[in-house]
Design brief:
Blueprint: H1 7-19, E1 24-28, H2 50-59, E2 65-67, H3 96-99, H4 110-118, H5 130-151, H6 154-166, H7 168-184, H8 195-198, H9 206-222, H10 224-250, E3 254-259, H11 265-270, E4 275-283, E5 293-300, H12 302-305, H13 314-329, E6 333-336, H14 340-343, E7 346-349, E8 361-362, H15 400-406, H16 408-420, E9 428-430, H17 438-446, E10 451-454, E11 476-479, H18 488-495, H19 499-512, H20 519-528, H21 530-543, E12 548-552, H22 553-556, H23 590-600, H24 603-608, H25 610-619
Parallel strand pairs: 1-2, 1-12, 2-3, 3-6, 6-9, 10-11, 11-12
Antiparallel strand pairs: 4-5, 4-7, 7-8
Amino acid sequence: MVCTLNNNKVSIVKKALKVLGKKNFVFIMHNGSFPSLPEENTGFGTINSTAGHRFIDYIAGLFDAIQMGPAGKTKSSDSSPYTGTIFSNNPLFIDLKQLTTEKWGCILSTETFNDIVANNPNKGKNRTSYSYISKKQSLALSEAYKNFVALNDKKLMAEFEAYKIENDIWLDKDSLYEALSIAHGTDFWPNWKSDVDKNLFNPKTIEEKLQYAKRIEEISKTYSKEIDEYKFIQFILYKQSLETAKYAASKGVKMIADRQVAFSDRDCWAYQSLFLEGWSLGCPPDYFSKDGQAWGFPVINPEKLYNDDGSLGEAGILMKNLYKKMFRENPGGVRIDHIVGLIDPWVYKAGKKPMPEHGAGRLYSSPEHPELKKYAIAKIEDLDMSLTSDKEKRVKSLTEEQIKLYGRLIEKIVIAAAEEEGLTKDSIVCEDLGTLTNPVAAVMKQYDLLGMRLTQFTVPTEEEDPYRCKNITERCWAMVGTHDNQPVALWAKSMVHTHEGYLHVKNLVEDLFTEVQDKDALIVKMTNDADFLTETKLVELFACKAENIQIFFTDYFNIPQTYNVPGTSGDKNWSLRLPDNFENMEPINLPLILKKAIIARGTQFADANKEIIEELDEII
């Protein structure tokens, strides 16, 4: 469809998007989901590959950016990108094919590469082979490092040494963890037998600090090769990612990063002195989970975020360095997953359920809590203690000073990091889906942050639902679904012939077909026709007033498979890929959808844009 059309026709689509007030049109696809050339399919996608660059060519001119998933290193036993490392990037994103070329001194043999491709268990399928490639990639990169050392390329060696010095603040710790994982036979540090190794960066006394420094020196010598290899792998990925970013920029495409709320095992070990001991981050009981969600992620200690004079403390500096790195490497911006966890986190006692009766509460909004009250920004008199339902709204009033305190991590760390890297706060995409506490809503408003509006989340019985088309405002990011939702086509199939579907359809007709006389006939057609409902749901996305639009790859390419099903585990999650022959696939009929979106704005708007409607008609 559109991306395969010539430049003139793409320009018509861009003109239609501008008429509808769209400033950014962004494609969402996680790195592992990128296609491969059939002869280069190792079992995992990467934007750094030949096919990855080909995909950039495919979307160039139409899409402004690609929203990637979290880029951190994942565990071999867990493919979820949302539990990856905060600094180290995922070695699976390295394009092995490049390492077989003269550009990299042929440090990986063609035989090794071809063997990996030939034995990929999901060859020819649009699925990653996570367990397979995790092992094979590791072996291949060890071979590449060995050959790199033997090659002794002076220019490449100098670049590598400079990279190590520039990134030592995090690279030294992450590579040391790799060495200790080898020494203990497991990369899960709580299972290490040595208490010294568990606490190398968490000394409690001067004596321990001296003892741990000696141990660090010992490990660094014993495992110097493994440590250097870890750093070299990160260096390869850095160079490849930089080249890809430059290539994308030359095509007018930017990258948007994704910062997950979690910290990996590696990060918990390296920075454990900065976390709140005995507490974990999660979600409170709600409609979806009566016991709440026990994520088990560590919580940054509020007392380590800032010093008494308001300047950044050790934890604050860590967080700012993280965001600065992300904004520097991703000029399109950063998506913050679960921004509630930065502003008003729900915490619970480790080993307990995340329920109030088990001692859980909002870290900064629990002035009545015997242990959390010392961190509270809200005061007792700010709470509506009479609420028996919707307790997330119990903070009823806040002063300007309190709002600033709730928002200082956003202001002093996230926004400051963006601005120091030459970006603005509009480069921050805030995942604020679900119920927002009043402090979070107040901070979002105070700093004019761009939240998300997910049209698939519309509650059709609520007239003022923020995800409903007529209620979506300009200053936000709108999308049909994210990586955790069914593709819109599957959602539509689940809605036809149901009462819930009827309610959704009724709202769609009211919002998008205001001037149609026979609305009942439209309702009947849409409640029985999944394809028509799918199309109308996409029309809604572009007809709404949101200035920024994102679309997930399964929705754009009509792939009837779900990328991730929250609350479940297994090989199907996080493994879906865009097929290698994506250029021959039939994506959504964007010209038709945009035409209908313009018409949905009403006769006056359509008449004013008659010329663009006619141009769209010519390419439909």
